[in-house]
Amino acid sequence: MAKEPRVLAGQTAVVTGGARGIGRATASALLAAGMKVAIGDLDGALADQTARELSPTGAFGGQLDVTDRDSFAAFLDETERRLGPIDVLVNNAGIMPLNRFTEEDDDTARRIIDINVHGVILGTKLALERMMPRDRGHIVNLASQAGKVGAPGGATYAASKHAVVGLTESVRGEMRLLGAHIDLSYVMPVIVATELGSGLPAIRGVTALTPTDVADAIVQALRDGTVDVWVPKSLKPLSTFTGLLPRRAAEGIGRAVKADRVLFEPGLPPASEAAQLPAAAAQPSQEVAQQAVR
């Protein structure tokens, strides 16, 4: 017997990197489902503006640095003070600097890991501190198709998304062994038409996604309790099929649809000027990229 979809209306959600792109679309979709939403972003003023535009009464926005425990904890505390106990955390914040691996500077690599991996680890820990005593909650971590396959031209980014997939599966297993009724999901979109994804070539035969496509998939995952969320869904059976093939055949399919060149195409314009700056000189790169383009 099919499970009844979960009712989301009245629940409280937090969306990190929620001022733009996927984060904003997700906040909008959660509000449409009847949820109360806290929008966190390194650009606190823009987060506040986004919240006011989406719902003057059902949302609030503020400054959030996902790499800083005090900042993250304070934002979650403020959310619970204003909106009630947190039922859902969407760890969406992330950056996607692209470069040949041998040309990537060390500071940029550290920044990718700090935001894309440690930010998710920190958010998950802080959310669990609040959810476990109530024995309920759902954490959604934004990964990427790059978290399942290699991505030439974005090696460290791909590594960060593999980490998100592994983290989510591992923590989910711990919750099950502990008997905790807390769900975890990870979302794996292909390239999304957002600020940082602009200019990237498409995979042959795969339509480019919009932020709304990803947001709708997140809402559906919350309703259905889906663990691995493929966007679009059609890529899951393809991945399963190619996973059964010999490596040479699977890689041949990837080359045929140009999946191996999405982040590597010679002459590709930067995904974002700020995202291309060395991380040591580019704290603003998180301000631009905090909405996590996949």
What does this 3D model show about the protein?
This protein is an alpha/beta fold. The protein has helices at residues 21-32, 44-54, 69-83, 106-131, 155-178, 211-224, 235-243, 247-256, 273-276, 284-289; strands at 12-16, 36-41, 59-63, 88-91, 137-142, 182-189, 228-231. The protein has a single domain, classed as 3-Layer(aba) Sandwich (Rossmann fold), CATH 3.40.50.720. Strands 3-2-1-4-5-6-7 form a 7-stranded parallel beta sheet, with helices on both faces. Strand 6, helix 6 and strand 7 form a beta-alpha-beta unit. Helix 1 (21-32) crosses helix 6 (211-224), helix 3 runs parallel beside helix 4 and helix 4 packs parallel to helix 5. The chain is globular and about 50 Å long. The two termini are 35 Å apart.
Overall pLDDT level: 83
Task: Specify the biggest β-sheet.
Answer: 7 strands, parallel
Distance linking N and C termini: 35 Å
Tally of distinct domains: 1
Determine the structural class based on helices, strands and strand pairing.
alpha/beta
Radius of gyration: 18 Å
User: Might you state the CATH topology name?
Assistant: Rossmann fold
CATH domain class: Alpha Beta
Which term fits the overall shape? Answer: globular
Order of secondary-structure elements? EHEHEHEHEHEHEHHHH
Q: What is the CATH architecture term? A: 3-Layer(aba) Sandwich
Strand content: 5-15%
CATH superfamily: NAD(P)-binding Rossmann-like Domain
